[in-house]
Amino acid sequence: MKRTRAAAVLCLVLCCLGMAACPAGVPKTYPLRLGTFSDQREHGVTDLFIYSPWSPGQYAQLTLPEHCWGVTLPNTSHDSKAPVSSPWRISGDSTAAVFEKNPRDGVTFRATAACDSMAVKLRIEIENQSADAVKDIRALVCLKPDNTIGNPGRGDCMRAFRDTSYALTYFPSGGRQIQLHQDTHYSGEYPPGITPENIRTKIVWGINVKGCPDIRSIEDVGWWYIGDHPGRVVEEQADPALIAIQARGDSTRWLATIWDPPRVLFANPLNPCFHSDPSFADCPPGGKTSAEGIVFFHDGTFAQLVERALAWKAALHSAKESGK
Questions:
Q1: CATH class, 33-321 region
Q2: Do residues 126 and 133 touch, judged by C-beta distance below 8 A?
Q3: CB proximity list for 62: less than 8 A, separation 6 or greater
Q4: Could you give the 3-state DSSP secondary structure of residue 270?
Q5: Half-sphere exposure (CA, 13 Å, Cβ side) for 27?
Q6: pLDDT at 19 over 90
Q7: pTM reported for the whole predicted model
């Protein structure tokens, strides 16, 4: 036990200094830190920056949330009618962050993030101290390794994970590693303007989660995947609700995210952005409802990444059952 602990400490020191590989059997870990914007803005006002453990000067943008709304719950949005400062409060050591807002009287929206080795644990909580129940809660959480397609060149982006053609995006299904678009199936009509020549760069592919309702059956979020809208849903279902982007040129390096309880996965190559969106139980007066998420930075195989996601989910459920 002492030898294993000493090896892990030595691994951490050497990896942080970039001096050596870790001994066999000891996972690589690097320091993670959080940040946010320092100016005022009207778009992306809920953006949290997660700095890369591999290249600390680079960061991914996590829009937490992009939107969150429900019956009697006004939208907490990444858009603002006037320029505002970041609502995120970052801890002194940059390893934790919290954002609170009152969408209406008596209701608190709370988002938190905490670095944990090669991951960032996330939580959205809605506390209802009003007389009216909060129902049918929807939330979108957007992960962008780079900026939007109109501004693809910021020097501090995680460019290796920028995927505008589904060349790097994967999810687990039926015990298999599935490449979105390449390995998935769809037999319906495509959105207007989608052709065989541009489909990889324009269509928004959605992925239902095994055991969850078909996203197209949920009126206020499912419209994105039907009719004239740019999204469609593949036949394969995610299990677990993990979406992962492989680094370009490095098959052992991954950026991934998952939420529990889950709602849907999707990827939009036009941004590009990646979603594993949460679902929530209704919140009665005097109650709370929440969902937990995580962003993984992973060195290793896709199968090992899925194992990490399943272990995180199992620990989460165990803690809830024990009342922690």
A1: mainly beta
A2: no
A3: 47, 48, 49, 50, 113, 120, 122, 141, 142, 143, 144, 295
A4: coil
A5: 13
A6: no
A7: 0.90
